[in-house]
């Protein structure tokens, strides 16, 4: 069985690596088409309509050439000239209309691509191990998913139609110039290679320079997010100047990096922009020479001058797209890095059905990066029982809870529910079986009612309020100005720590999952509220499997089984009385706990006597 699982893991990892390689090797256009889905036709239509618009924009030059010939030959048919002028106006108008249609098509497809990208990144983050998200500053992921992804909209929406036009137009013009005089057609391009040489010099080290700018920008974003999120601590400890200086330093370093890059590009860019448009420097002297020796008709010379003016500008526009495409390539790399992350090893459908709601850990090893924190942990928690995990800070209690909650994957060993390895259960099915409440619970910037309802989206208002009553939330919620319609604020910032935790417990209870994990969920509560919550939890988890992590041993002394965790191992297991009888770490922790309680009682008693 273990061999089969190892092979499956190898195949999954190889699949991710191959997909990552394919994404990196895929061209920018291919990458866009992958996410365009059913909207690929819109991009194709955008290019096709843009091409028609380009042709409409070129036809007036043919008409103009014909008019010049007729004027030189002495044709005085003013009605024909008027008709030609109207035809030119119609074609130029058609060019604008087709360009607008092309841009509309590309924009519609692009907004679909951006929405699809964001949906895929959100879905991916829900399936990767928690460590991937925790190891990255929230500002970095948010920046990639929002600002960075949004910044490719202009490139996607405009490059395809406009690049088509700016490439096709000069090609058609050049072919037309060849029919007039092949020598002048080639002469009109003399400045182009020299300008491209200068431009290529500007692009030397582009990827490295752009990545440096991005790194500085990320540092600035992370510093800003840290400054805002930690403003309470910063003010409390008088660190405003230090934190502000860090932000200013990050801003200055970012600006200096960008300015340094622009300074390197300034000279070659300026030379390129001066040289490329100067077609007149070659067309006029050579054209005049050819007219003088009779090898070029004056009327053709005039036409060449007119065409050469519009020949180079589209190339300049196309070169500006290379900068956009370069930036887009970097953004694609960032998005691909998220989308190709290894997911938790879970099937789409359950491979087996758990017999009950028991929880078993067998020889579990786990490491944060290269540092192993759990060493062969084994424990059995019968279905419908109450188990407690206790131990010193940093012993591995919360890590065990997160492994059971499937927020991480074990490196070795297994976690089983009802005898079935959790890696044989789909994430959706497993999430329905588990309710997890941690010490730091996130509340969304929505009403308290909706934050509780997230436990079971289909719950009625009455069910939400009933579970709030049973969780000890109702009274404090009703004391708020808008009651259940009060907005909790981002992260529940408008509520106290204890209030947030009670709402989180109510949310978990509403979910009515058969397995409930409370990871120090009463840490912020005062003794009175904690007693209420303990009584509420006792009623709400009847018949369920309850796993509790608590720093107050008195709250778990009635557990069916207590596991003492020390240095990533199960140091001892048993009931409260059994562990006290054995002595050891639990006995020491209990003695320390009771000593603290006695001191608190003495202090309270002394205060009453003094009063």
**CATH topology description of the domain at 359-441 and 509-610:** Rossmann fold
Give the percentage of residues in beta strands: 5-15%
Helical coverage, percent range:
55-70%
Computed over alpha carbons, the radius of gyration is 35 Å
Total E-strand runs: 10
Description of the structure:
It is a single chain. The protein is elongated, with a radius of gyration of 35 Å. The longest helix has 48 residues, at 78-125. It has helices at 2-25, 28-36, 40-72, 78-125, 130-134, 138-151, 153-180, 182-187, 191-202, 206-229, 231-236, 240-275, 280-292, 298-339, 397-404, 427-433, 448-453, 461-470, 474-478, 497-511, 527-540, 576-582, 584-610; strands at residues 359-368, 371-381, 386-390, 412-417, 420-421, 434-437, 515-519, 545-549, 561-566, 569-574. It has a six-stranded mixed beta sheet with strand order 6-7-8-3-9-10, with helices on both faces. The two termini are 69 Å apart. Helix 3 runs parallel beside helix 7 (153-180) and helix 7 (153-180) packs antiparallel against helix 14 (298-339). Among the domains are: 20-186, ABC transporter transmembrane region fold (Up-down Bundle), CATH 1.20.1560; 359-441 and 509-610, P-loop containing nucleotide triphosphate hydrolases (Rossmann fold). It is an alpha/beta fold and 611 residues long.
């Amino acid at each position: 069985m273990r061999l089969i699982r190892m092979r499956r893991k190898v195949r999954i990892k190889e699949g991710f690596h191959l997909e990552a390689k394919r994404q990196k090797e895929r061209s920018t256009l291919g990458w866009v088409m992958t996410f365009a889905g059913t909207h690929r036709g819109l991009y194709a239509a955008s290019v096709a309509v843009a091409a028609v618009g380009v042709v409409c924009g070129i036809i007036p030059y043919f008409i103009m050439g014909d008019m010049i010939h007729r004027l030189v030959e002495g044709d005085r048919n003013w009605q024909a000239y008027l008709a030609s002028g109207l035809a030119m106006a119609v074609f130029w108008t058609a060019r604008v209309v087709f360009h607008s249609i092309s841009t509309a098509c590309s924009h519609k497809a692009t907004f679909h691509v951006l929405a699809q990208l964001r949906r895929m990144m959100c879905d991916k983050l829900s399936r990767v191990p928690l460590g991937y998200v925790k190891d990255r500053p929230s500002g970095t992921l948010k920046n990639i998913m929002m600002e960075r992804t949004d910044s490719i909209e202009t490139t996607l929406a405009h490059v395809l139609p406009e690049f088509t036009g700016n490439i096709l137009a000069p090609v058609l013009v050049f072919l037309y110039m060849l029919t007039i005089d092949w020598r002048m057609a080639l002469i009109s391009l003399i400045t182009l290679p020299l300008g491209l040489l200068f431009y290529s010099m500007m692009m030397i080290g582009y990827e490295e320079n752009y990545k440096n700018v991005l790194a500085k920008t990320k540092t600035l974003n992370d510093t800003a997010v840290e400054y805002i999120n930690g403003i309470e601590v910063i003010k409390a400890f008088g660190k405003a100047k230090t934190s502000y200086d860090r932000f200013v330093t990050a801003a200055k370093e970012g600006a200096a990096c960008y300015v340094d890059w622009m300074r390197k590009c300034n000279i070659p860019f300026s030379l390129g922009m001066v040289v490329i448009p100067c077609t007149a420097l070659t067309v006029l002297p050579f054209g005049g020479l050819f007219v003088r020796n009779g090898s070029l008709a004056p009327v053709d010379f005039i036409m060449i001058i007119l065409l050469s003016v519009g020949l180079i500008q589209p190339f300049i526009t196309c070169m500006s797209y290379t900068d956009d495409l370069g930036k887009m390539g970097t953004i694609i790399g960032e998005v691909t890095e998220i989308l190709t992350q290894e997911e938790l090893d879970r099937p789409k459908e359950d491979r087996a059905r758990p017999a009950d709601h028991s929880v078993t850990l067998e020889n579990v090893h786990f490491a944060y990066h290269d540092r192993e924190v759990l060493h062969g942990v084994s424990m059995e928690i019968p279905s419908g029982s109450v188990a407690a995990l206790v131990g010193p800070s940093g012993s591995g209690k919360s890590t065990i809870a997160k492994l059971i909650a499937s927020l991480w994957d074990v490196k070795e060993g297994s976690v089983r529910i009802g005898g079935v390895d959790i890696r044989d259960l789909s994430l959706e099915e497993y999430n329905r079986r588990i309710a997890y409440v941690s010490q730091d619970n996130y509340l969304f910037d929505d009403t308290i009612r909706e934050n509780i309802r997230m436990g079971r989206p289909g719950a009625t208002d009455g069910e939400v309020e009933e579970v709030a009553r049973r969780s000890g939330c109702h009274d404090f919620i009703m004391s708020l100005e808008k009651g259940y319609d009060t907005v909790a604020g981002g992260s529940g910032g408008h509520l106290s720590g204890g209030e947030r935790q009670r709402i989180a417990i109510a949310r978990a209870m509403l979910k009515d999952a058969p397995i409930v994990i409370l990871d120090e969920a009463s840490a912020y509560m005062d003794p009175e509220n904690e007693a209420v919550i303990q009584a509420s939890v006792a009623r709400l988890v009847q018949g369920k499997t309850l796993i509790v992590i608590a720093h107050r041993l008195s709250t778990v002394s009635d557990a069916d089984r207590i596991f003492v965790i020390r240095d990533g191992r199960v140091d001892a297991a048993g009931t409260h009385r059994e562990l006290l009888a054995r002595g050891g770490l639990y006995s020491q922790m209990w003695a320390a706990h009771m000593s603290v309680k006695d001191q608190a009682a003495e202090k309270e008693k002394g205060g009453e006597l003094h009063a």
